[in-house]
Amino acid sequence: MMWNDPGSEAVVLGSWSRAENYAISIIQVVNHHGSGWVNWNIALNLAGGPNWAGNLVDAPIIINEEADEFYKQPMFYVMGHFSKFVVAGSRMLPSSIEELDSHQVHTAAFLRPDGPIVIVLLNTGEAELDLSVDVASEGYATLHLPAKTIQTVIIAGDHQQAKSHSKTKFTTKTQSSDDDRS
Fold first, then answer.
1. Helix 16-31 to helix 74-83 angle, to the nearest 10 degrees?
2. Are 141 and 155 in contact (CB under 8 A)?
3. What pLDDT was estimated at residue 98?
């Protein structure tokens, strides 16, 4: 999946739509049993280069050589949801979305080697959602996911019994939030 639309500008400073596509790409790769996800172009110039492929693309960090500055793009912060909380040795856990607007919520879950479970949730929809996360034998956790957001949930505890990703499943049920929420 590309986060640059074909025919569009190579670099768009502050683009959250590209950050969404970036997050979806990472989530899809790990949910299809990818053991990692690599961004070969973590830092590029304002034109979107240079890079190994010789084309011009957006990147999490954009370097402005003339001003001696760099800019952290929204993609940079998306990467943080994975690189900060999903540590080396973590295992992917199956996760799924059930019920209302499940195509607008993307999720990836991981068991960290030190015991906590990490769930990354991306809401690409225009509506905020209340989620009920079924954590297998642990019970339910309820959380609020605003529209157009990415959130990381860490479920503390010693979940070492979930050694195989076939033994623990996380189901997230969604329902629209009330419009009169204060």
1. 30
2. yes
3. 74
pLDDT at 76 over 60: yes
The confidence score (pLDDT) of residue 20 equals 95
Q: Give the residues across from 43 on adjacent strands.
A: 61
- The 8 Å CB, 24+ separation contacts for 48-52 are 48/10, 48/11, 49/10
Q: Are residues 99 and 74 in the same domain?
A: no
Better-predicted residue by pLDDT, 72 or 142? 72
User: Do 76 and 116 share a domain, yes or no?
Assistant: no
The residue segments making up the domain with residue 46 are 16-81
| 51 and 114 assigned to the same domain | no
In this model, does residue 171 exceed pLDDT 90?
no
Q: How many domains is the chain partitioned into structurally?
A: 2
pTM of the full structure: 0.80
Neighbours of 79 (CB within 10 A): 21
Query: In degrees to the nearest 10, what's the CA dihedral of 40, 45, 46, 49?
Result: -60
Whether the predicted pLDDT of 13 surpasses 50 = yes
Q: What is the CATH number of the domain that holds 105?
A: 2.60.40
Residue 122: C-alpha distances to residues 6, 52, 71, 153, 162 (Å): 23, 30, 23, 11, 24
Confidence of residue 10 (pLDDT cuts 50, 70, 90): very high
Radius of gyration of the chain (CA): 18
Asked if 104 and 153 sit in the same domain, the reply is: yes
